[in-house]
């Protein structure tokens, strides 16, 4: 036996520390549970529960997935709104462009129609003018219904007898004539005294229209009172006159050289 076996120890028994605790953890119903138990309980805390429990929420996979889906949905809605706004803007611009194009097309069509109408009007007027001139020429070149009788026949007979004679300026026959010399000599055959020059002969009688000519009417070229040439209408759409030094005295149709007017002295 050891000599010290009966000697009591002076060391006090070691007591557990009041602050010493055991930690127990667990997951219950989606919450983290922490249980803390003390090794010793003070005397005045005998009524308190042995374990103190604190629950903390934890983020589960389902919750994270739900939050991600909500974010995606919000982003999709925002994208849809933006896309719709862009589409509406594009449609509005397209509609305005279409309206502008339509207005320009209508304006252009009206201008083209107006231009064509104006061209048609001018063409119609030109056709009417040509038809009028053609009708007038046909009337003037048509055979006369008047028959030379009496003094008229004598006048035409004298003029035809001078055909082929020379044209000489200032001459009044009998071998050559100028235009007014020939008409003066012809009317002298039937007792009518005409002025000598063509200017005065163009106002010697009553003015008549070229569409109402009779045999014996004096034709003139130029204006009345200042005519530069004269001849005599002999019927059948023809006239006789001393034309020029190249042709002499000839018979020609009216449309060979249309006169300006005519006077009637018979």
Order of helices and strands: EEEHHEEHHEEEEEE
Q: What would you say the CATH architecture of the largest domain is? A: Alpha-Beta Complex
CATH class label of the largest domain:
Alpha Beta
Indicate how many domains the architecture comprises: 3
Distance between the termini: 200 Å
Low-confidence stretches: 16-23, 25-41, 138-147
Which features would summarize this protein structure in a list?
266 residues; alpha+beta; endopeptidase fold (from Nostoc punctiforme); 3 domains; six-stranded antiparallel beta sheet; three-stranded antiparallel beta sheet; 4 helices; rod-shaped
Overview of the structural elements:
By secondary structure, the chain is an alpha+beta fold. It has three domains: 38 residues, no CATH class; 68 residues; 114 residues, endopeptidase domain like (from Nostoc punctiforme) (endopeptidase fold (from Nostoc punctiforme), Alpha-Beta Complex). Helix content is 40%, strand content 22%. The chain has four helices and eleven strands. It has a six-stranded antiparallel sheet with strand order 6-11-7-8-9-10. It has a three-stranded antiparallel sheet with strand order 1-2-3, with no helix packed on it. α2 packs across α3. It is rod-shaped.
């Amino acid at each position: 036996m050891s000599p010290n076996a009966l000697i009591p120890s002076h060391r006090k028994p070691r007591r557990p520390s009041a602050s010493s605790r055991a930690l127990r953890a667990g997951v219950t119903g989606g919450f983290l549970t922490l249980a803390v138990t003390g090794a010793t309980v003070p005397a005045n805390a005998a009524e308190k529960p042995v374990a103190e429990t604190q629950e903390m929420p934890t983020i589960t996979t389902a919750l994270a997935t739900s939050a991600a889906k909500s974010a995606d949905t919000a982003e999709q809605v925002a994208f849809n709104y933006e896309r719709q706004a862009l589409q509406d803007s594009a449609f509005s611009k397209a509609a305005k462009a279409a309206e502008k194009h339509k207005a320009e097309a209508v304006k252009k069509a009206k201008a083209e129609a107006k231009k064509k109408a104006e061209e048609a009007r001018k063409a119609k007027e030109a056709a009417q003018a040509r038809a009028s001139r053609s009708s007038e020429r046909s009337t003037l070149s048509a055979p006369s219904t008047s028959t030379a009788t009496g003094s008229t026949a004598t006048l035409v007979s004298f003029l035809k007898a001078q055909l082929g004679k020379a044209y000489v300026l200032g001459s009044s026959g009998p071998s050559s004539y100028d235009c007014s010399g020939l008409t003066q000599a012809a009317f002298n055959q039937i007792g009518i005294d005409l002025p000598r020059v063509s200017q005065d002969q163009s106002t010697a009688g009553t003015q008549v229209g070229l569409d109402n000519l009779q045999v014996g009417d004096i034709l003139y070229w130029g204006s009345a009172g200042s005519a530069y040439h004269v001849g005599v209408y002999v019927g059948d759409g023809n006239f006789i006159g001393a034309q020029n030094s190249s042709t002499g005295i000839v018979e020609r149709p009216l449309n060979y050289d249309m006169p300006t007017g005519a006077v009637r002295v018979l």
